[in-house]
Amino acid sequence: MTKKTPRILGTGHTVPGKVRYNDDPVFDYLRKHPPPGSDLFAGYDKRHVLSNGETMIDIMLPAAKLALADAGITADQVDLLIGDGSVGKYRTPNTISELHHRLGLPARAWPLPLQNSFSQFNAALMYADALIRAERAEHILIALGDNWTRYVSYETPQAISAADGAAACVIGPTNNTSKWEFVDQITIADTSYYGSMYMASDLIHDGEEAAPSLTETGDYSHAYFHITDKGIKGFTEFGVRKSPDAVAALLKRHRLDASDVCLLTHQASTKLMEHWKEVINPGYYIQTIAQYANIVQCSVLFNLSWGMQNVPEFTQDWVVVLCLGPDMHANAMLLRRNDF
């Protein structure tokens, strides 16, 4: 009997019902006082945001249930839960532990947080594939959620891009070749940029903000995502220009032409995405930045799920997923279906 291959058996995605448009009053300060770097963030018409009283679990739970239903399995068949709810109610444990409880997953299903800065889906899929091939697990649920509209400062340019959402998928063994299989990945990292983009609170001292310190006392601001001048430089020099090299190397390794693949990417801004589309020149590019904005770590899995349900033109048998992290790293991952 042919050994079954680990594949994506089902997907699901969810966004909250509240929609924030570009003319929302929350952006009034940015319109009146455009800060440096504002031109780097573009391409959004609307973004979905959690309402008062809603939490991340309110979107992660239905996304996970949709993925289980799409895969045709029940919660008691899940052997491992990998994912991240960002930013959770607690620094630790992660929100996926609450998801584990709310889904009714079995006690043996380890809730395993994975917090590797925007490329959680790529890493989780690679781990899931390896564990199933090693027969350490049979069915693995990957679940990601974001509520970053609550963790940006609306006096910073990146705030205009923030959106909330959740996505999930189930990986398991099957002989159904119409399902997506992980094939390969290539990473480029330039961690000299570490600290140029980060999420943290600021120490408020004598009415001014300073870097947090364990040796000082004072009040702290709400945690929010920072981009320094070096981060703006990294956005363009590494994010825009260098990260497509990972895709080029992956396609070369597998002797694929870009026209053969569908591209899925991190979608922080059309400044990135338009350049990537031009230099990579894929056969198709699924992007939802106008209607869903930047769902941070969820974007690629969200768009894979959304594209399979809503894009008839999504007919390619190869997908390249490009994720970009703020440390900085770029990971390109190759998926395949219909490999007969």
Q: How are the SSEs placed, and which strands pair?
A:
Blueprint lengths: L4 E10 L3 E4 L6 H5 L13 E4 L7 H15 L8 E7 L8 H9 L6 E4 L6 H14 L6 E8 L16 E11 L6 E9 L7 E4 L2 E3 L2 E3 L8 E2 L3 E4 L1 H14 L1 H10 L7 E5 L4 H11 L3 E2 L3 H4 L6 H12 L7 E8 L3 E8 L4
Parallel strand pairs: 4-5, 4-6, 14-15, 14-16
Antiparallel strand pairs: 1-7, 2-3, 6-7, 8-17, 9-13, 10-11, 10-12, 16-17
Helix pairs in contact: 2-3, 5-7
- Rg calculated over all Cα atoms: 20 Å
Q: What is the CA–CA distance across the termini? A: 17 Å
Major sheet: arrangement of strands: 1-7-6-4-5
CATH T-level topology of the largest domain? Peroxisomal Thiolase, Chain A, domain 1
- Strand coverage percent: 25-35%
Helix-strand sequence: EEHEHEHEHEEEEEEEEHHEHEHHEE
Low-confidence stretches: 210-215
By CATH reckoning, the class of the largest domain would read Alpha Beta
Question: How would you characterize this protein structure?
Answer:
The chain is an alpha/beta fold and 340 residues long. The protein folds into two domains: 5-174, 3-Layer(aba) Sandwich (Peroxisomal Thiolase, Chain A, domain 1); 181-192 and 231-336, Peroxisomal Thiolase, Chain A, domain 1 (3-Layer(aba) Sandwich). Helices cover 28% and strands 28% of the residues. It has helices at residues 28-32, 57-71, 95-103, 120-133, 229-242, 244-253, 270-280, 289-292, 299-310; strands at 5-14, 18-21, 46-49, 80-86, 110-113, 140-147, 164-174, 181-189, 197-200, 203-205, 208-210, 219-220, 224-227, 261-265, 284-285, 318-325, 329-336. The strands form five sheets. A five-stranded mixed β-sheet has the order 1-7-6-4-5. The protein has a five-stranded mixed β-sheet with strand order 8-17-16-14-15, with helices on both faces. It has a three-stranded antiparallel β-sheet with strand order 11-10-12, with no helix packed on it. The model is unreliable at 210-215 (pLDDT under 50).
